[in-house]
Amino acid sequence: MQLQLRYMLLQHARRGNTKFLREAEFMNIQRSSLQKSTQLTATVFLAGLSLLLTGCFITPGKFVAELILTEEDRFTFTYEGEIFFLGLSSLAQMGTAADEFMADSCYDAKTYEDRECTEAELTDQRAAWDANAGMRAAEAAQKAEQMSAMMGGIDPSDPEASAELAALLLRQEGWTRVEDKGDGVFDVSYSVSGELSHDFMFPIIEGFPMPNPFVQIILRDGDIVRINAPGFSAGSEANPLGALMGGMPGIAGMATLREREDGNPELPEMPVIDGAFTIVTDGIIRANNTDEGGRQTARGEELVWDISPRTQSAPTALIDVSR
């Protein structure tokens, strides 16, 4: 089908139809783009990621989270499972891969078919590449500095970066287990209890910019509590990977093409959000967006959300704890 379409466009182009000539040129450029190397594909992908690394770069993987609102105006929040730090993943590091020259595709000006580049063309391409070496080095240094600032001063390229982050979390109250699973993924256990006298947000990490929260508790007048969990939704802006997936079809296509050519996957695997969020309360549930509403248990009334990549609406509830 694609070859037939290309043939049709070329026939129109040869008849002098400039509109179809432009279409034929675009198709050839698009086809050549799909044949770029692993490094170039990752660079394009990271261009999108760079827009997300502005505070929302921590996402859940597999997890179980629970919020308990009990008598005496107290709460207990627990999180067990995976947390993914984009800055420590191989995905983020792909943009700082070895600075190597990669030749662009060459094609026949009449047939628009791919062909081998001449030595003169390769020489010109390499000269242009070498001329931009200083600019690429400066951009790489700036990117590394920005990433370190996003990681609370931790250098992601340091082999000890994951251990340093684990130590940072463990010295904060509530974090009782932080195990490095590799590639930016940590298995954690977090639990904290307190009075409902102030707002609450998870996670908060010392020295890090304020991330968009997995869970937040907002106190309103009249002993009304608003609970939002924007991080527990693949469609939420608080989940950068979920937002990024909206632009993944083209990237996935390039990865598939590359895998067919050399057997090596183009992009590393990304964690998939998969978990459950439960609220337990003895207060009055005024509003919620669960599928089935509250259910009475021995502990109190429960609200349960099953979270998956198909979850588009972030969990939310409004609870009266005035009693």
Say how many strands there are.
14
Helical residue percent?
A: 25-40%
Radius of gyration: 25 Å
Distance between the termini: 68 Å
Q: If helices are DSSP runs of H or I spanning 4 or more residues, what is the number of helices?
A: 9
Give the uncertain stretches in residue-range form.
1-42, 51-56, 245-265
SS strand fraction: 25-35%
Could you say how many structural domains there are in total? 1
Order of helices and strands: HHHEEHEEHHHEEEEEHHEEEEE
- Order of strands, main sheet, comes to 5-6-2-1-10-13-12
Shape: elongated
Main structural class: alpha+beta
Structure characterization notes:
This protein has 9 helices and 14 strands. It has helices at 2-14, 18-33, 38-52, 90-93, 119-131, 133-150, 161-170, 240-244, 248-262; strands spanning 58-70, 74-85, 106-107, 114-115, 175-182, 185-195, 200-202, 215-220, 224-228, 274-281, 284-288, 295-297, 300-307, 316-320. The model is unreliable at 1-42, 51-56 and 245-265 (pLDDT under 50). The strands form 3 sheets. The protein has a 7-stranded mixed sheet with strand order 5-6-2-1-10-13-12, with helices on one face. The protein has a 5-stranded antiparallel sheet with strand order 7-8-9-14-11, with no helix packed on it. The longest helix has 18 residues, at 133-150. It is elongated and about 80 Å long. 25% of the residues are buried. With 323 residues, the protein is α+β, with helices and mostly antiparallel strands.
